[in-house]
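Could you show me just one protein sequence together with its fold in token form as a worked example?
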Amino acid sequence: MIPIPLHDHIRRQTFWFFTLLIIVANVLAFLFEISLGQNVDRLVFYFGIIPIRYTNPHLVAQAGGPGLLLPIFTSMFLHGGWLHLLGNMLFLFVFGRSIEDRFGHWKFLLLYFLSGLGGALTHIALNAGSRTPTIGASGAIAGVLGAYFISYPAARITTLFPIFFFFWTIEVPALLLLGYWFFIQFFTGFQMQAIQTATRGGVAWWAHVGGFLVGLALAAAFRPRRRRPVVEVLS
């Protein structure tokens, strides 16, 4: 059973410009991927994160500074399929709007990309010999979840619970929902670390963990855009 967040109940005071811009950029990037057909593999190879490129001295020298830095950020705009894209964008839409409103547009953007960077470095560190390209905005979005976890722990999130052929919507406290999400990422990452080989694909669980912790730390360090109650619940 995978809970699916639908929306929160925070009263926002500004428009979520950068959240929308990131969503649009990801959708356009994915449409470009589709247009490439079989050539998309080359795109993923050059613009995805391949951990061994960062840990093998010969490959590090071959790639150079730009060749190492660029994939860290371009990989955040590539996705492996419609479900991958839509799942990520849903989480960004639900949680990103309130974080952008709380910290302001530019701090939100900084938090987003630094979380993506933290997630990528965590993934590289714990999968040093992997030759499998990693793509997706999950690490950066995990940072947004971490920021939400510490900023709005009491916020109620309307969440869809699909159980067999039935669908239930329940309002769940963000502390519980995001705490459960983080536990799943950490526990699964820990399990997979023992059995995942250097060439095996899969979900970059540790990128989620690293991004979440970076976002949490940045939200604790940032000063909110304005003083306001932690949670403002809409009737």
Observations:
- The chain has one domain: 4-221.
